[in-house]
Amino acid sequence: MIQFFHVYKSFGVEQQALTDVTLEIAKGEFVFLTGPSGAGKSTLMRMIFCAERPSRGQILVNGRNVGRLPGAAVPFLRRQMGVVFQDFKLLPRKSIEDNVGIALEIADVPAREIRRRTYAVLKEVGLAHKLHQMPPRLSGGEQQRVAIARALVNEPQVLLADEPTGNLDAERSKEIMSLLFHANARGTTVVVATHDRALIEAYGKRNIHLEAGRVITS
Amino acid sequence: MRRLFYFAGQALSSIRGSLGISALTAATIAAALLVSGFYAMALQNLENLALVWGRTATLAAYLDDSLPQSEWEETRAAVAGLPPVAKATLVLPAEALARFAARGPEARALVADVSADLLPAAIEVDLRAGFADLAVVERLAKELAALFGVSSVDYGQQEFERLRALLEVLRYGGLGAGILLLLATAFIVSNTIRLTVYARKDEIGILRLVGATRWFVRVPFLMEGAVWGLAGGGLAAATMWLAHLSFAARLSVAIAAVVGGLNVSLFDPTVAALVLGAGFGLGVLGSAFAVGRFLDVEEA
């Protein structure tokens, strides 16, 4: 599903973010991406959804070389993915329903279908009763569940989560991880970047460990 | 069509959500357009002034001293026969002297010992209404000067030249100034809009992350820009209309002593339509540039 072949990424002359990264994540797999801060986890994630381009090497996502994808094609690649961030990245002036539905609106899904699917996914994450509330009125855990609902509403092939529990307590983290596993159980490839060792040990999934931009174990 | 409604809904909701900033943007556009609008009206009023001047202009053709008095009437008739001339009146030297003396005691004292023979005879020319044009006055003056027996022609050349020079400066210099003004306006408007877009750059980033194309992000901003621009243009046109109602008549009266018959105008439907169109264009283009910058930043 996701393949990196000798990928390098540098920011300027001195800052080498990734060095000779080669890895493969199979379709339907659940993978933790771990490493200390600055190891290159976020850069690697951002390269999968084309927010960064590799300086050298090839990245294939579902068989497409995303490093060479023209700018105009990037939005269409992103519609096949769901992305979740530590800071939730919700639209503060839109309701929960609109925040989730925006992913479908962008894909030009009919209005009735948007309402149906938005309600269904919000029900799945336990927030159907907060459909019309605004994000700032929700707790951190709830906001992250909305972000996951937005990432899942398009039924993506790949779900990328960058430190999704970084701002949450243990109980809320467990809820979020449960939602991610649930998505994975339905066939979505899930990649979770984290530096939380407890999380990795608790679930015993494949762990790709990065240090100073290099893959140490995969 | 549904998408268009969606975009319009987004634009309106955004305007509602930031009424203060929207009002500021519209006011900036209005202020910038008001300067251009009043400039256009000033030019139009000066053009009208030239017309009025032409209409009220009186030409005087002075006859050569060597021309025998028996031929004065013949020359007057030749002048009267020219197409733009409504009336040609022969003014005898004695009559001219009497007119000058009638200006007041000082004038009377000045010409007390002057003999009428020293003054030339003149033919005063009134123009037909349809020929009330500065260019016609000039052409006629040349024709008169070329007539046999005419030594010189006076039609207030100095004032005409000044007015014409001013109009030339305003017309052609105004073209350059207009372009500069438009660029300055576009710059101010674009920067004001950029501030409003900057406040929403996170929103743009999020939309791009979930797969929005550049156009999906851009269109609601363009619609917002169009609303700001039309509101600003409308405000500028309305201000011009109010200024016209409040001051135009008073200005006309105030300058009547200098130039009679000029109706000062501070509003014109064509200028108002141009101001509205310019507002629309500035709003849309300003938004396009402002959003473009943030889209480029978000582009991987």
What does the overall shape of chain A look like? globular
Please, how many domains of chain B? 2
| Number of helical regions of chain B | 10
| Distance between the ends of chain B | 30 Å
Characterise this structure.
The complex is a heterodimer of chains A (218) and B (300). Chain A is built from 7 helices and 10 strands. Chain A is α/β, with parallel strands linked by helices and 218 residues long. In chain A, the strands form 2 sheets. Chain A has a 6-stranded mixed beta sheet with strand order 6-7-8-3-9-10, with helices on both faces. A 4-stranded antiparallel beta sheet of chain A has the order 2-1-4-5, with helices on one face. The relative contact order of chain A is 0.21. Helix content of chain B is 72%, strand content 8%. Chain B contains 10 helices and 4 strands. Chain B starts with a helix and ends with a helix. The A-B interface holds A 46, 49-53, 71-72, 74-79, 83, 89-91, 93, 102-103, 105-108, 110-111, 150, 154 and B 2-3, 6, 13-14, 17, 202-203, 205-213, 216, 299-300.
Layout of helices and strands:
The complex is a heterodimer of chains A (218) and B (300).
Chain A: E1 2-11, E2 15-25, E3 30-34, H1 41-48, E4 56-61, E5 64-65, H2 74-78, E6 81-85, H3 96-106, H4 111-124, H5 140-152, E7 158-162, H6 170-185, E8 189-194, H7 197-203, E9 206-211, E10 214-217
Parallel strand pairs in A: 3-8, 3-9, 6-7, 7-8
Antiparallel strand pairs in A: 1-2, 1-4, 4-5, 9-10
Chain B: H1 2-17, H2 19-56, E1 59-63, H3 72-80, E2 85-91, H4 93-101, H5 105-110, E3 122-127, H6 134-146, E4 150-154, H7 157-198, H8 201-209, H9 214-256, H10 269-298
Antiparallel strand pairs in B: 1-3, 1-4, 2-3
